[in-house]
Design a protein that fits this description.
Layout lengths: L1 H27 L10 H13 L2 H5 L3 E6 L4 E6 L4 E8 L2 E8 L5 E5 L2 E2 L2 H22 L10 E7 L2 E6 L9 E6 L5 E7 L8 E10 L5 E7 L5 E2 L1 E6 L10 H5 L7
Antiparallel strand pairs: 1-2, 1-14, 2-3, 3-4, 4-5, 5-6, 7-8, 8-9, 9-10, 10-11, 11-12, 12-13
Length: 255
Amino acid sequence: MIKRIGLTLLGLLAAATLIAGGVFYFASRREPPRGASGAPAEALLQKIERATAQDRLAASAALAFEFPLADRRHFRDLRRRWVEVEYARDEDVYRVQYSERDGRRRAWRNGAELAGAALDAEFRAARAYHTNDFFWLSPFSQFRAPGAALEAVAERSLLVRYIAGGETPGDRYLIITDAVGQPERIQMWVSVIPIPGAEFRIERWETTATGARFATLYSSAARNIELKNLRAYATYPEPGMRDRFELDFGGRPGQ
């Protein structure tokens, strides 16, 4: 009898969880709005760019940050367009370096260099990881990417549609700003998030040594996304610093 009661309670708990999840899903889902392209959208984007100091990001030489949710570490050389991603999978530790310009790549598993199909597989994985994680770090720097279409939905709301290019064409983002253009909330219609129009509050802004500004916390009822150990370099490598790509990627500073 006790076992039967226990199973019944577990069944009720599971049903309640499914119902609650369903209510949250349908209560959270939204349809993407429509807006005006052209001058209104451009004016709002420029306001966002000023509020988030995109000019200072463009003046930075490199960025380093961590994505704790998936235990990934990133280094991006903005001048040479080289990327390093470190991550773990199935008790193995990977380090991948690649060029965004010409596709050159190197990868290591537990310190042993990979080649052939294994190298190509980790390159694809690392590129997808970096595309996702860097978007969370700096979404506002990517609104002028090829294939991005802009619409001003309201005085303080900008809709960005990626109609081509990137890892996930078709994704849409609605940015809601304050009076000066600083983003406060973001709604997403993206393939990697199952709730259409999922909303995150944009919080915990940090200003780096180069003057570039980043939000390092995106909070929602379902999950928080945070970024840690953010650092921007005015020059890279700094004087006396070993160039991580100099030894491991075959490059030379300034190339």
